[in-house]
Design goal:
6-stranded mixed sheet, 277 residues, 7 helices, 13 strands, alpha/beta, Metallo-beta-lactamase, Chain A
Length: 277
């Protein structure tokens, strides 16, 4: 693992190999009172290198340092933007500026959302819809709408060469400690962490039709990926698929997330300002 200097909040962006040709760029972002959420991006090294997402805006400097440690950004040919949240677009425009040949794979909706703040140059956009395939060098990628998401533009993909499912926010978890491999999590930590994350990230789940949702989950099961690379979970080997899907199946019946109110915020601020005795 390559460690980089922490930012002002002490959060580092590190890297490790998920496969010989796939690098993970990761950090663990603290949510006070709840735990840590991994924030992952991925570099696929091939004849036409591809970056999946661009880190969090608040960590842009650390992300670029970690990226440069595994690849020269000017060597990238493609950037797959899974969706337009701030923990996925942090270095998007810096990369476009540094690499004039870089093209962004996204959806029509993704490009539209970006147009409301910092538009993408449309001649550098490649639009895909779920179910469509794109050939990137020696790889074929099939766009997939994950069964759980927080942003309507969300589009992950299945890489037919590595047999990896890049699932965006789907399968994420809030954890007390983050291993490099999700298989090292206990059944309880994985279930609790994933269900909690799903209730936060996809608050519409309690309203979902359970039968239709089960069919969506079964579609991922039939995909049978050799590994799942989520934006917010450590690398998960394919043999974990039943555990991962069981967590999602439990999420619609879980207690909906209700965030801290003003009184709780004031209490947290008080604790933060108290001097240790």
């Amino acid at each position: 693992m390559i460690a980089n200097k922490p930012n002002k909040e002490g959060i580092m962006v590190d890297s490790y190999k998920a496969a010989p040709d796939i690098e993970v760029l990761t950090s663990n972002f603290p949510i006070p009172g709840y735990g840590l959420v991994p924030i992952n991006a991925f570099v696929i090294k091939d004849s036409e290198p591809l970056l999946v997402d661009t880190g969090a805006a608040v960590q842009s400097g650390e992300f670029m340092s970690a990226l440069r440690s595994v690849i020269d950004p000017t060597d990238l040919k493609w950037l797959w933007l899974t969706h337009t949240d701030f923990d996925h677009i942090g270095c998007l425009h810096q990369l476009l500026a540094e690499n004039p040949k870089l093209r962004v794979i996204t959806t029509f909706l993704g490009a539209g959302i970006m147009g409301l703040s910092d538009p993408l140059p449309l001649d550098r956009v490649y639009l895909v819809n779920p179910g469509e395939t794109i050939t990137v060098g020696n790889r074929t990628l099939t766009a997939v709408k994950p069964p759980v998401f927080d942003n309507p533009s969300t589009t992950g993909f299945y890489d037919h060469k590595s047999e990896a499912f890049f699932s965006s926010d789907c399968f994420g978890a809030l954890l007390s400690a983050v291993p490099q491999n999700a298989a090292d999590l206990s059944d309880k930590d994985l279930l609790d962490g994933q269900v909690f994350w799903a209730t936060v990230d996809s608050p519409w789940l309690p309203k979902v039709d359970r039968g239709a949702f089960a069919k969506e989950l079964d579609g991922i099961r039939k995909m049978a990926p050799k590994m799942v690379l989520s934006s917010h979970l450590p690398l998960a080997p394919g043999h974990m698929m039943d555990r991962l899907l069981a967590s999602l199946a439990a999420a619609p019946g879980a207690q909906p997330f209700v965030g801290p109110n003003q009184a709780a915020l004031e209490q947290m601020l008080k604790k933060m300002t108290e001097q240790p005795r």
